[in-house]
Amino acid sequence: MNVPDDLVELGRIGEPYGLKGWVNVLPSSEEPDVLLKSKQWWVSRLPASEGAAVRRTAQPKFEDLVFESFRVLQSKPHSSRIVAHLEGIEQPELAAQFKGRRVYVSRARFPAPAEGEYYWVDLVGCQVSNLEGNVLGTVTQVVDHGAHPILSVKGDAEQDMLIPFVAAYIVNVDTQAKQIQADWQEDY
């Protein structure tokens, strides 16, 4: 099976759950709807070298990972986590082998967001311009500081520009064209 080129990391597998081989997943987001609705997960692992132990690195590169596809038979929220039954994993001993692996879903399988809502992964890479048409930079990440999300925008300055992702400052978002218009100035 071909691995999709639009995989988005959505969680990390923890300890097994129950006696029937369910996995316990810590979602990457406070709103794990995509994980709950998706019927196919891609689980990453590091490749085993020939006869040697699996390489352990602090942050493996995406291109170094090997992905396995799993059909999600059932999933449900459990406290701040998600528990799921994946096809082919029927014992807790087998589920324990997945501890620490990352869970990905193809971006193409995300449900359509409601009007005025955006997946953060779609905002990354968007070019941000102000009302005067000046390009402020490109969104490198979206972070949540509690009250609201903040766009981290890399421009010509040494430090990233931080722009609150709220209606008071964000005038227009076009994820298809990868453009965001903000009521913001370069010297803010």
UniProtKB/TrEMBL annotation:
It holds the Pfam family PRC_RimM. SUPFAM superfamilies: PRC-barrel domain (SSF50346), Translation proteins (SSF50447). Residues 120-187 form the Ribosome maturation factor RimM PRC barrel domain. Keywords: Chaperone, Cytoplasm, Ribosome biogenesis, rRNA processing. It is found in: Cytoplasm. Signal peptide: none annotated. Residues 10-108 form the RimM N-terminal domain. Gene3D superfamilies: PRC-barrel domain, RimM. InterPro entries: PRC_barrel-like_sf, PRC_RimM, RimM, RimM_N, RimM_N_sf, Transl_B-barrel_sf. Binds ribosomal protein uS19. Belongs to the RimM family. HAMAP family: Ribosome_mat_RimM. An accessory protein needed during the final step in the assembly of 30S ribosomal subunit, possibly for assembly of the head region. Essential for efficient processing of 16S rRNA. May be needed both before and after RbfA during the maturation of 16S rRNA. It has affinity for free ribosomal 30S subunits but not for 70S ribosomes. This is Ribosome maturation factor RimM. It comes from Limnobacter profundi. The gene is rimM.
